[in-house]
Amino acid sequence: MDDPIRIQTTPTFGQYLQFCRLGIGRRTRMIKPFAILCLICFLLAPTLPSEGNPGALAQYKSSAMVLILPAFVFVLLPLVTYFAARQRWRTAAEAREPRSFEFNDWGISIKGLTFSAEAAWTNIPRAETAGPLILLYTRQELGYLIPRDAMTPEQEASLRVLLRNTVTNCKRL
Q1: How confident is the prediction for the chain on average, in pLDDT?
Q2: CA distance linking residue 86 with residue 65, whole number of Å
Q3: ∠ at Cα 113 (109, 114), nearest 5°?
Q4: Does the pLDDT value for residue 171 go beyond 90?
Q5: Which positions ≥6 away from 2 have C-beta within 8 Å?
Q6: How crowded is residue 131: how many other Cβ atoms within 10 Å of its Cβ?
């Protein structure tokens, strides 16, 4: 690559929240099928055989405990994630500050007002697209968020080619 790809951006809370939700989604992906199964069992409770015919409402009341896992996975975790992300966004000024990314054959360089970082492509084993973001992960699971709307279509195409050629695990790129 002759010229590096340079991108100037200021992160938004929506982008940061999407990144946090993606991380929680990954951590809970193994229990989501069980939560869905619990929800289906609850909905089918009146159709299950029981002693006598207590009625649908009584069947739902007796099986309400089955809703604990779905409530945790689909209600509590998203709420906690939102409030934790909002708190972090308010207290961490470095998360909100403008930054510039430079991508070249060697790796990535990021500069903000109060920080700077460099990482060689050998230290970035995974890259993926998640909605309006391109995410680059280091081996320590640190994620670099690159908003796609901060790039021209030519820059995005060049970055995708560069990532496919340098990052070993590229998902949805």
Answers
A1: 90
A2: 31
A3: 90
A4: no
A5: none
A6: 11
pTM of the model: 0.80
What whole-number distance in Å separates Cα of residue 45 and Cα of residue 50?
Answer: 10
Backbone phi and psi for residue 28, each to the nearest 5 degrees, phi listed first: -105, 5
pLDDT digits 0-9 by tens, 111-155? 999 999 999 999 999 999 988 899 999 988 888 899 999 999 999
Detail the DSSP E strand segments found in 29-132.
99-103, 107-112, 116-120, 126-130
| Beta-sheet strands, E only, within the chain | 5-9, 99-103, 107-112, 116-120, 126-130, 133-137, 143-147, 169-171
